[in-house]
Structure to design on (130 residues):
């Protein structure tokens, strides 16, 4: 599900100093607004609009997803088994390093607060085939 332009504009108005990453850039189904990284890159904070994210994993980064608005199905591939966690508002879920994961909204795109330890970076983000 593509993230509507008005949702992206709302994020930009709400967080004008955020670093925005649209995935994919031409027709985003996920928009990351990176809010903070500490100076030593030990942790990061982002608000993410998710319609559908692509399967990926991180070698070093532990992520905690907390749904702020909407409902999100979080898919985890462990030992070739798909586990689905359905996250509703306020329920946090931790994604361990080396866990292939992706997410899909249920209904409208979901707004998710994501903390990461260490801070998320492009060099520790590996896409995989579904």
């Amino acid at each position: 599900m593509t993230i509507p332009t008005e949702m992206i504009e709302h994020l930009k108005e709400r967080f004008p100093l955020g670093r925005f990453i649209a995935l994919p850039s031409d027709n985003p189904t996920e928009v990351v607004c990176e809010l903070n990284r500490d100076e030593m890159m030990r942790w990061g904070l982002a608000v993410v609009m998710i319609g559908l994210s692509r399967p990926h994993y991180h070698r070093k980064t532990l992520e905690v997803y907390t749904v702020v608005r909407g409902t999100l199905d979080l898919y985890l591939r462990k030992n070739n088994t798909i586990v689905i966690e359905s996250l509703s508002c306020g329920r946090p879920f931790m994604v361990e390093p080396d866990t292939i994961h992706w997410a899909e909204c249920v209904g409208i795109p979901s707004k998710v607060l994501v903390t990461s330890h260490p801070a998320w970076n492009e060099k520790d983000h590996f896409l995989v085939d579904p």
